[in-house]
Design a protein that fits this description.
Number of helices: 8
Radius of gyration: 18 Å
Order of helices and strands: EEHHEHEHEEHEHHEHEE
Structural class: alpha/beta
Shape: globular
CATH superfamily: Vaccinia Virus protein VP39
Helix content: 25-40%
Strand content: 15-25%
Distance between the termini: 48 Å
CATH architecture: 3-Layer(aba) Sandwich
Number of domains: 1
CATH topology: Rossmann fold
Largest sheet: 8 strands, mixed
CATH class: Alpha Beta
Number of strands: 10
Length: 258
């Protein structure tokens, strides 16, 4: 949240009594989704990087299913690729915003997707697997709704000591990063994810990613200045770039066989 009188950015913390990873936090933070300097700023950067893995539609009426779509942050980045964008999420306040950005909103659980087998040309599962109690079931559902020849794209947090350190202990020190949004017990081991996707007919290759260092530093400095990001929207946000290690954050992409 921002104290407009003082021009100071404060931490938009979820309701204090909520446990880690409580879905109600997204209602608490509903006004943050589309703020470029808000609690979900990094999700914007990740959405842009995820969209780079989405191929242009190869047929009329192609469908992209966006699991854990939130407020539809992927939408601007895939708008010109020729898909009907269907977003699945549990949070009504987020789905309402997604619909305002051209997403066909469907309320549902990523582990029990209320869509037909093979309905999707692309399934995007961005920053959602580390939020579901049973990520293997969510992977099975993502693969189920994907048609043969369709593309699965995902990104998530790795279940490593370094992943837990950076994503929880370090990240939550930064102003504006909500405390408790992640539960490290739900992080997803990259090797196990690759194995699980293969078991469902989707061979996936993963790579580590991170925010570009100089861009991230500039963004943090700009955000810390009096007035925050006001009047500075022309400066590009940090890019998500490949890195040698997948120990913290990683992307995956695969094509379903058959």
């Amino acid at each position: 949240m921002r104290d407009e009188g003082a021009g100071v950015t404060t931490r938009p913390a979820p309701t204090p009594h909520r446990p880690r990873n409580d879905p109600g936090q997204y209602d608490d933070l509903a006004d943050e989704w589309w703020r470029p300097d808000g609690a979900f700023a990094m999700l914007h950067w990740l959405a842009a990087a995820r969209a780079e893995l989405v191929p242009p539609a190869r047929r009329p009426g192609a469908v992209l299913v966006d699991l854990g779509c939130g407020a539809g942050l992927l939408a601007p980045h895939v708008a010109g690729k020729g898909y009907r964008h269907v977003g699945v999420d549990l949070t009504r306040s987020a789905l309402e915003q997604a619909a305002e950005h051209g997403v066909t909103a469907v309320r549902g659980d990523a582990a029990r997707v209320p869509l037909a087998d093979g309905c999707a040309d692309v399934v995007a599962a961005g920053e959602v697997l580390e939020h579901v109690p049973d990520w293997r079931r969510a992977v099975a559902e993502a693969c189920r709704v994907l048609r043969p020849g369709g593309t699965l794209v995902l990104d998530t947090l790795n279940d490593t000591a370094l992943g837990r350190l950076i994503s929880i202990r370090v990240a939550e020190l930064f102003p504006g990063v909500p405390r408790g949004i992640h539960d490290p017990r739900l992080f997803v081991n990259a090797r196990e994810l690759v194995s699980e996707c293969a078991r469902h007919g989707v061979p996936v290759r993963v790579r580590g990613v991170r925010p570009q260092a100089l861009g991230m530093l500039r963004w943090l400095v700009r955000r810390a200045l009096p007035g925050g990001m006001a009047g500075r929207s022309a400066v590009a946000p940090p890019r998500i770039v490949p890195t040698w290690s997948a120990a913290v954050l990683y992307q995956g992409r695969g094509v379903k066989g058959g």
